[in-house]
Amino acid sequence: MGLDARVSPRSAAVGHSYATAPPAAADDPSSSSFPPAEAPAPAFSLHGSVETGEGQKDYGAGNSLLQSQFVLQKESSVPMCFIWPKEDLVKAIEELREPVVDLSGFLKGDLVATQDAAMLIRESCLKHGFFQITGHGVDPRLIRMAYDHLDRFFKLPVSMKLRAKRMPGTNWGYSGAHADRFSSKLPWKETLSFRFYEPDDSHPVVLDFFKSTLGMDFEETGLVYQKYCEAMKEVALAIMELMAISLGIHDQQHYKHFFQDGSSIMRCNYYPPCKEPEYVLGTGPHCDPTSLTILHQDQVGGLEVFSDNKWRTVRPRQGAFVVNIGDTFMALSNGKYKSCLHRALVNRDKERRSLTFFMNPREDKVVRPPEYLVSSCTGDAPRTYPDFTWSELLQFTQKHYRADDATLPNFTKWLLSSKPANVNNN
Ligand SMILES: O=C(O)CCC(=O)C(=O)O
């Protein structure tokens, strides 16, 4: 796909193209078209002072309070900073008819089932980059425990949750409504994110994260999420094999090898109920900058995908994981497979939870499609995106740009303008 070929939800909704302005280069302070993603949010004051529920009041340094489920649920009307523009709130009428891919045959080595699975994946990734999987082999008890520990964490008092507070410039830790990074269009949610990778010494990095931020009381939580991430990585690598098959790549292990030593991110999402859900979004419209996302959602519903110029609801399916392609994989497929544009709505009465595993390559690995995809699909313009590293795209979305439906084309423009030596169009 060409740089600006993506159909945007706004162009569908209001008839003009979306986010085509080039981002401000990191070292270009004169450019103001893209405010830095880390622009400090102004301090909020919700009705002067707010009880924290722990015998203390917060007088205006409301960011941390605004970050809490406690405050979000108490508000009778939605604070301005949570209100999204109309064009982002256009309602989904129809359900997405995404394929449900049963992985069990492929995992057993059945060639026919493998081809069937690869075909379904191909169709959906060419169209919108989204499908669901069953027969994945993940123990349902592990999924249940992951939810139990998610509940345990988000029900903690704010002061406890803030012990794991996300620090500026990092992408792990506890964050409420991302109010530490942004000051408008805030998502109606709290998140807890942590990194997952497998170091040479096999150190359990997730367990370490929980013990070091929240103390030994969270050892069991750390163990559960360590296991959960290991299970997710296994599923993600299996899907990577199917991706290679579905793209007709001779070396079926190509992507699997590429991601083997990767550095992933796990995020627990907690969406409190909202008294005016029609004005807010739990997660705004965006494509994941990452490579492959494996998401488990509870049965409440709220996830939506943009396909055929419309937002479409995704029906939660018991026992299934949702899978979507992210920007980095779109680049790895030379633009052939679509990075999935999605968002999440919130509910008036019910809380909603999801567990999201984002698979990425090792941070310094060069993201470049296999030669076969370059020569077979694009004729005169052999490369759709220049070489980049996951670390560069991650920095772009942490420091210069808020992920949306045009992150990849804008990142590409930024990369080409700020680092011309990086171009490798062969
Ligand atoms: O909770 C969901 O359904 C979507 C979550 C999501 O898009 C994200 O965490 O980036």
TrEMBL record:
<dbReference type="Pfam" id="PF03171">
    <property type="entry name" value="2OG-FeII_Oxy"/>
</dbReference>
<dbReference type="Pfam" id="PF14226">
    <property type="entry name" value="DIOX_N"/>
</dbReference>
<keyword id="KW-0560">Oxidoreductase</keyword>
<keyword id="KW-0479">Metal-binding</keyword>
<comment type="pathway">
    <text>Plant hormone biosynthesis; gibberellin biosynthesis.</text>
</comment>
<dbReference type="GO" id="GO:0009686">
    <property type="term" value="P:gibberellin biosynthetic process"/>
</dbReference>
<feature type="compositionally biased region" description="Low complexity">
    <location>
        <begin position="21"/>
        <end position="45"/>
    </location>
</feature>
<dbReference type="GO" id="GO:0046872">
    <property type="term" value="F:metal ion binding"/>
</dbReference>
<dbReference type="InterPro" id="IPR026992">
    <property type="entry name" value="DIOX_N"/>
</dbReference>
<keyword id="KW-0408">Iron</keyword>
<dbReference type="GO" id="GO:0045544">
    <property type="term" value="F:gibberellin 20-oxidase activity"/>
</dbReference>
<dbReference type="InterPro" id="IPR050231">
    <property type="entry name" value="Iron_ascorbate_oxido_reductase"/>
</dbReference>
<dbReference type="InterPro" id="IPR027443">
    <property type="entry name" value="IPNS-like_sf"/>
</dbReference>
<feature type="domain" description="Fe2OG dioxygenase">
    <location>
        <begin position="262"/>
        <end position="361"/>
    </location>
</feature>
<dbReference type="InterPro" id="IPR044861">
    <property type="entry name" value="IPNS-like_FE2OG_OXY"/>
</dbReference>
<feature type="region of interest" description="Disordered">
    <location>
        <begin position="1"/>
        <end position="52"/>
    </location>
</feature>
<comment type="pathway">
    <text>Hormone biosynthesis.</text>
</comment>
<comment type="similarity">
    <text>Belongs to the iron/ascorbate-dependent oxidoreductase family. GA20OX subfamily.</text>
</comment>
<dbReference type="InterPro" id="IPR005123">
    <property type="entry name" value="Oxoglu/Fe-dep_dioxygenase_dom"/>
</dbReference>
<protein>
    <recommendedName>
        <fullName>Fe2OG dioxygenase domain-containing protein</fullName>
    </recommendedName>
</protein>
